[in-house]
Amino acid sequence: MSSEAVRIPFDGRQIEIEYQWLRPERVRRPLAVFLHEGLGSVSMWRDFPRKLCEAGDFRGLVFSRYGYGGSTPRPHDEKWGVDFMHRQAREALPALFAALDIGPGRRHGKPWLLGHSDGGSIALIHAASFPDAVDGVTVLAPHIVVEDLSVRSIAVTRETYLTTDLRARLARHHHDVDSAFWGWNDIWLDPAFRAFDLRPLLDNLRCPVLAVQGEEDEYGTMAQIEGIHRYAPQTVLLKLARCGHSPHRDQAGALTAATVAFINTHTSILK
C-alpha cells in the first residue's frame, strides 16, 4: 500500500508527515493509530497494523513521525531536547489529528493509540495531556523513566550502526537514515536525558490502558509497565515470555488477541 503525505505546522514551520489509512471504510469501528518506535516508520511496522486491524475489524492509521520514514527529515544540525517526546505528543500529534479530521466531534472520532517504545511514551503523554481526546491506549515496551539497561543497549546500538550493515538495513525505511538514527541516538545518550520522567503525568490518565512488556526486553524492565499501573490503576498489564523489545514481532499472536479483546471491551464506537 502506498503512503500519502499531509502538511502540518510544527516548530514554526510546515512539515510533511507520511501516513497510510487502513480499512477506512469501516466507519463504525474503532480507529487504531500506530505510533512507532525510536527508529521506526510506516514501513518498519511491516504487516502488523494491517493484521491487527483485520483481526479486530478496526480502522487504522499508520504514520512516520517528523524525522522518520518518508516524513520531513530532521536537519542534521538540529538537536532534540529532553522534551522531544512531549513535543510530539502535545504539538505534532494534535496537528496531525486536526489535519486528518481525527478526534472528538470530528469525522473519524476518538482514536485508540497503539504505541511502541518511544511511540508508547508519546501515546501516554498525549492521553495524559488530553484525557478526553482518546478512547484508550495500548503501549508496547514504553519508557516512563530512563533505565541504565536502556542506555547501555542504546550505546551498543550506536556501535552496531557504525560497524555493521545496520545503517544499510535501516536506510530501506527512511529517506534520510542518518537524520533518523542520530536524532534518536544522540538524545538518548545525552546525560541530560536522564531527567526524562513521565511519572508526574501518569495519574492524569483517565482512559483504559493496556501495557505490554516482554520478559527478555533488552531496552527496559517490568518496572516500566508496573510504574504505569502504580499511577494509573486501571492499567491492565500483559507480560510476555519469550519476548524482547518488539512484542508485535516476537509474540504477534498473543499481542493481537489481547489488544483486540481490550479495544472491543472498552471502545466507545459500536459495531
From TrEMBL:
InterPro entries documented for this protein: AB_hydrolase_1, AB_hydrolase_fold
Coiled coil ranges: none
Family matches, as Pfam families: Abhydrolase_6
Domain AB hydrolase-1: 33-257
Xref: SUPFAM superfamilies: alpha/beta-Hydrolases
Residues that span the membrane, as ranges: none
Name by which UniProt lists this protein: Pimeloyl-ACP methyl ester carboxylesterase
Biological classification of the source: Bacteria, Pseudomonadati, Pseudomonadota, Betaproteobacteria, Burkholderiales
